[in-house]
Each structure stands twice: as structure tokens, then as C-alpha cells.
Write a structure and sequence with these properties.
Layout: H1 4-31, H2 37-64, E1 88-89, E2 94-95, H3 96-114, H4 124-147, H5 151-155, H6 163-181, H7 194-213, H8 221-249, H9 254-268, H10 277-300, H11 309-327, H12 345-376, H13 383-388, H14 390-395
Antiparallel strand pairs: 1-2
Helix pairs in contact: 1-2, 1-3, 1-7, 2-3, 2-4, 3-4, 3-6, 4-6, 4-12, 6-11, 6-12, 7-8, 7-9, 8-9, 8-10, 9-10, 9-11, 10-11, 11-12
Length: 403
């Protein structure tokens, strides 16, 4: 009944995407100061639990069941109603349970990405409210509109593995968050452990093969090119960022190489299974340069995006959708279309319009829900807690013995 090869591959891909959330925890944990390591890691790990609960209750159904106005699904599959071990995900010949689990891993990591922007400033209870509200009001509608049969998918918008659905909307939510909560009064002096950042980058990079190649939902030629394009873009972006830092900061930075690689991974995500390897090289180079300048612009604008979520994921996701509109090649993937450079300007403008509209929605909705949450419980920590560090102040735990 089921294709065992595709099923086995998708179980591995699902496991790889799950690994990305602990990887993100290490990546962010190394970037903050010693007194805030556990807090930022906790915010990633707690999403694994809370998002799974929400996904089981209503998340999967709101994303992939029915259609309400082209914007959101219905509740026909709430609590995974009517689904059993024999229910297929027909187009790939795999059990529907595997597809549900795979998409759940995307839902887990997406809101966790946002936490790097407001590091060291947000109360845990307020974050939990934001996590649940953001999933329901931002993430689930985006999944439905782009992947679940909603209005953007009907319009012809494509997004292979989450340029809009994951990275851009998380980056725009991050931008809204830092504007709402304001600057840190006691900024970290710098990353407390670049080796932790390197470990996190390695886990993210490894997991990203499941994120991108797995989005084909089967094993075929598109799976292979998505896998290769992922590595190519990350590598070129990392090298370009390192060179940019060498030019403008006078020294090659290991942290720059790591950050650039993540920017390349985020940028290739929407295009991985729709473009040639040559286009992946160009996308990687653009990602390294554009995201580097976006992070520099953030500093000049005095926006306290602590861990550069907007500059890497927001800008990277936006850029990736634009690049898909430019370089999409139907010869790579029969389910795709040609982009602007192959004579199809209509597709390019659809992609551009979609990413602009969803960016505005994600920013506005994220800011609005923070405003509402702040009426229920303060979002920002006290000045004293920020100065002392949130690990002990909020959780009564510390990562390291403080001398």
C-alpha cells in the first residue's frame, strides 16, 4: 500500500528537521552572554513541546484540512480525527501520519527562530502566550495559503520549503518584536561561546538537508538537486560573508562564516527544488552579500535585533522568494514553472507580491499580538532581571557557575 522507500526517507527527513530545533538552541545559546544561555535555549526547546500539543489539537487541521476563505483550514481533522495508520498521503505513497509529523517539525522551529531577536528581554509567560497566538494567527494561515490549498497556492505562488512560510514571516515577526520591546539596557559584550555557535550551525546545516530535500516528499531527481543546492548555497554564502567581513572589518571572522552559511541556507530554501545548481551558486553569493549588508544596516538604524534574525532569516527568506521568481526553471522540476529570466515575468511578480503582502501581515499581526499580550501580562522583563541575567531571575537555573 505504501512506498517503503519514500516512507523510510521521509522518516529520516522528519528526524533531521527535528534536530534543527536543538541545533538552533545551541546556535542562539552560544551567541548570548553567560547569564542568558539557558533562557534562550529553553525558548527553543519549549516550542518542541507546546507546538506539538497545538499541532495535534488544531494545527494540522487548520493548515491542511478544508478551506475557509482561502486563508485557513477548518477543524475537520482536529485531534487528528479520522486519520489512522492506513490513511495515505496519496501523492507520495506515504502514510499521512508521516506527513503530519514532518510538517509538525516545521511548525516547531519557525516560532523558535523569532526568539533570537528579543534575547534577554522577554518574560517566559509572555513568550508562551506569543508562541501559541503566533502559531494560530500567523503560521497556520501562511501554511494553508501557500501549501494547504489556500489563496496563494491557487494563485500560483510557489515556495519549495519555506521562504515565505518559515523564514520571511519569522524575520518580520522578529522585526516587530524588537520594535515593540525596545533595546536592551545591558547588551551582551559578544558571543560567550563561538564553539557552541559552530555546533549549532553544524546541526542546522545537517538538518537542513531534511528541511529542503525532504520537501519533495519522495526520492527522485528533485530530491537530489534540492539536497545539492542546499549545500552549494550555504557554502558560497558563508565564504562571501567571510570575505565581506575580511574587507570591511579587516579580519576574517569564524562567526561571519557561520552566520553567512545560515543566511545561505535560509535564502535557498524556497528555491532549492526549482532552480539549477548554477542558480544556487548565484543565490548563495547574493545571500552572503545582501544579508551581510542587512545586518550592517540594522546596526546603523540602532535596531536591537540581538541575534540578527531579521537580517538573516527575514531578508534571506525575502531574497530567496525574489530569486525563485528570477531563476525558476521548469526543466528542473516539472511541478515548477519558469521565472523571469526564462521568459515568465508573471511568475516573478506573483512571487514578489506574495512576499510583500505576507511580510506586512506577519509584521502587523506580530506587533498587534504583543500589544494585546502586554495588556494581559508584561512582555518585557524588569531592568533588575535583565541586569542580573534571565537564567537565574526567571528559571532559577544557570548554565555555568558564576564567579
Amino acid at each position: 500500500m505504501f512506498d517503503t522507500g519514500n516512507t523510510g526517507f521521509m522518516l529520516v527527513a522528519t528526524s533531521l528537521v527535528m534536530l534543527m530545533t536543538p541545533g538552533l538552541a545551541f546556535f542562539y545559546g552560544g551567541l548570548v552572554g553567560r547569564r542568558n544561555v539557558l533562557t534562550i535555549m529553553f525558548q527553543s526547546f519549549v516550542s518542541m513541546g507546546v507546538t506539538t500539543v497545538v499541532w495535534y489539537l488544531v494545527g494540522y487541521s487548520l493548515c491542511f484540512s478544508g478551506d475557509v476563505g482561502g486563508v485557513i483550514g477548518n477543524l475537520d481533522k482536529a485531534f487528528l480525527h479520522g486519520i489512522d495508520v492506513t490513511t495515505p498521503y496519496a501523492s507520495a505513497g506515504i502514510p499521512l501520519f508521516v506527513f503530519i509529523a514532518y510538517q509538525m517539525m516545521f511548525a516547531i522551529i519557525t516560532p523558535a527562530l523569532i526568539t533570537g531577536a528579543f534575547a534577554n528581554r522577554v518574560r517566559f509567560g509572555a513568550y508562551l502566550l506569543f508562541l501559541v497566538a503566533w502559531l494560530i494567527l500567523v503560521y497556520f494561515p501562511m501554511v494553508h495559503m501557500v501549501w494547504g490549498g489556500g489563496i496563494l497556492q491557487q494563485w500560483g505562488v510557489q515556495d519549495f520549503a519555506g521562504g515565505i512560510v518559515v523564514h520571511n514571516i519569522a524575520g518580520m515577526a522578529a522585526l516587530a518584536s524588537i520594535i515593540f520591546v525596545g533595546k536592551r539596557l545591558f547588551p551582551d559584550k559578544g558571543p560567550h561561546s563561538i564553539p557552541l555557535v559552530a555546533l549549532g550551525t553544524g546541526l542546522l546545516w545537517f538538518g537542513w538537508y531534511g528541511f529542503n530535500a525532504g520537501s519533495e516528499l519522495r526520492v527522485d531527481g528533485v530530491t537530489a538537486i534540492a539536497f545539492l543546492n542546499t549545500d552549494i548555497a550555504a557554502s558560497f554564502a558563508g565564504v562571501v560573508w567571510m570575505v565581506m567581513a575580511w574587507i570591511f572589518e579587516k579580519k576574517p571572522k569564524f562567526l561571519g562564516l557561520l552566520t553567512g552559511a545560515v543566511a545561505g541556507l535560509a535564502t535557498i530554501t524556497p528555491a532549492a527544488g526549482y532552480v539549477t545548481t548554477t542558480s544556487a551558486v548565484l543565490i548563495g553569493c547574493l545571500a552572503g552579500a545582501v544579508c551581510y549588508f542587512a545586518v550592517s544596516l540594522k546596526a546603523k538604524m540602532k535596531l536591537d535585533d540581538a541575534l540578527d534574525v531579521w537580517g538573516v532569516h527575514g531578508v534571506g527568506g525575502f531574497l530567496g522568494i525574489v530569486c525563485l521568481g528570477l531563476w525558476a526553471d521548469a526543466s528542473v522540476n516539472s511541478a515548477g514553472v519558469n521565472g523571469l529570466f526564462l521568459g515568465n515575468p508573471t511568475f516573478f511578480f506573483k512571487e514578489l507580491a506574495a512576499v510583500v503582502i505576507t511580510s506586512v501581515y506577519a509584521f502587523g499581526m506580530s506587533y498587534g499580538m504583543l500589544w494585546v499580550i502586554n495588556k494581559i501580562t508584561p512582555v518585557k522583563v524588569t531592568n533588575q532581571d535583565e541586569e542580573n541575567g534571565l537564567d537565574d531571575a526567571l528559571h532559577g537555573e544557570t548554565a555555568y557557575e558564576m564567579i
